[in-house]
Amino acid sequence: MGKLPENMKAIVKDGPHYGAKMMTVDVPKDLGAHEVLVKVKAVSICGTDLHIWLWNEWAKEHINVPQILGHEFAGEVVAVGSEVSLVKIGDFVSSETHIPCGHCKQCRTGNMHVCQNLKILGVDMNGAFAEYVKVPEIVLWKNDPSIPSIWASVQEPLGNAIHTIFTEDVAGKNVLVTGAGPIGLLAIGVLKTAGAAKIIVSEVNEYRRNLAKEIGADVTVNPKNQSLVDIVKKETDGDGADVLIEMSGNPQALHDGLASLTNAGRASLLGVYDKDVQINLNDLVIFKAIRIYGITGRKMFETWYKGAELLKNKKLDLSKIITHVLDFDDYEKGFKLMEEGKCGKVVLKL
Ligand code: NAD
Ligand code: ZN
Fold this sequence. Notes:
- By secondary structure, the chain is an alpha/beta fold.
- The chain is built from eleven helices and 18 strands.
- Helix 4 (155-165) packs across helix 5 and helix 4 (155-165) packs across helix 10.
- The longest helix has 12 residues, at 182-193.
- The chain binds nicotinamide-adenine-dinucleotide and zinc ion.
């Protein structure tokens, strides 16, 4: 590790307040046997980073300051611990955010993403908004060199979209996406590749409705001044949508999304709600025979294979979904764009 610098730039949540600061900190060199040091090339700003930036209630409970933010990245392996065998120096990698223990019931039965002892990169430990990041090898993902680092850095949220969509098949089906934030926009791109019949997107933000159209939504709805249920019914010959992909975290969107589903339809819920949500289970779920899936994170590493193959084989174009690529030093501008919602994915380049 002789050639590594002593210090690096990092975006640090420096105290219990709004924002974060670019600071000079030590390069993490204390690698454990199974740890890897990655030189970061691109980092993408996630909604979680925004929550930490805004210092909302969730962040207050989960983040110990000072801490380096960020978890969606791509970069190059520059040092490996003594027992690392999955990657070597020079490999181009990204990383899963959910760090599993590898020993619990879920880890041993193909459900590492809901490990009982889950730790989250950039939440429970220093993250990737830095020139170098230390990660355990178990979460590393080797990227194909043909994928640009800016695209490779968004594979983690892309995996959220893939996981949500493919809990059942979507080919030839009419799909309603509620919420066209960065992940909803990625979902529209994935739905196009997966042969969805009609893609209906509900979004309150005009910029994102327009973006949804450009990416491939067949119909966009502003639920603030149009009845989502009526439009979905009209667009599906009165039947309702076959699939609901809930990506807004808004209770009204969940309610109207379920009400827009056809009987025996499927709902996959990724959106996270601020508070407990009340819905009429009898009318919206039970008597309609709806299947509801709760989605957390990505299937490790099934969804990574799917996302990486779509990118490698040029089946999914992220150029319209990644609306802003900024210099690492311009991070404040990136967070402001996220705050205003005038963006798709925002990526910082190092
Ligand atoms: P985001 O908050 O940027 O996007 C949500 C979008 O929903 C916004 O564009 C917003 O304008 C729109 N919206 C709000 N109210 C609406 C309504 N009534 N109808 C239609 N659209 C509405 O979030 P994101 O980063 O794209 O993530 C999507 C959701 O998934 C968020 O709720 C996020 O917290 C959640 N999430 C869950 C997981 C998980 O593992 N379950 C992982 C990542 C993100
Ligand atoms: Zn994320």
